[in-house]
Amino acid sequence: MAAAKRVCVSKGFGRAKIADVAREAELSVGTIYLYFKKKDELFAALSVRVLKHLNVRLWRARARKDLTFEQSLDVVKKALLEIYEIDPHMFLTLANLQASETLANITLELQRKIVDLLHQSFDIISQVLREGLETERPHAAAPAKLSLILWALFSGLVLWEESKRSLDPRKDHFKSTLNVAFEVFARGIVAH
Question: Would you call 81 helix, strand, or coil by DSSP?
Fold first, then answer.
């Protein structure tokens, strides 16, 4: 798994190959295939760790009480940003995983694990938002839908930022763009 992560970081999700991982891990390709039937499974397995860590961070955020909607939104943003900053390449792998057909190409067991962890993330985000909305915007859109929109917003920005970095690695507008995106999102809810 550590070798797969290093290969993913150096080559990117799309260009990484099982042979690269085997070489990096100093194993035969056949040995890798004993554990993972295809490349998609190997890289999807890396996402499980990211999602577990994210859910721990979101649960900590969920434990905070008496937050306004904007404070709740900020807590969610900080949790997502923290996980991204800890391991941007693995979060990018997760975003790529969701944006591609990879989930359909992995074992049902791994697929269920990832989907269950994603649903846990959405549920926790929904709970955080629900509590902030109850006092300020009781008629706002359902928190479950808002959590999906936030996830799509964040994942989309991760993919966008990475595509920009591939063109010019010196530029990093992620945080400033993320702040604007969450601010626009919050204004839309408040105006609703």
Answer: helix
Which amino acid is residue 106, in one-letter code?
I
DSSP 66: S
Q: Residues 158, 92: contact at Cβ < 8 Å?
A: yes
d(Cα 50, Cα 55) in Å, to the nearest integer? 9
- pTM confidence score: 0.81
Map 137-161 to HEC letters.
CCCCCCHHHHHHHHHHHHHHHHHHH
pLDDT digits (tens, 9 = 90+) for 141-168: 788 888 999 999 998 888 888 777 767 7
C-alpha closest to that of 6 among 85, 78, 93, 83: 93
CB atoms within 10 A of CB 45: 18
- Indicate the CATH number of 44-191 among 3.60.15.10, 3.10.590.10, 3.40.50.300, 1.10.357.10: 1.10.357.10
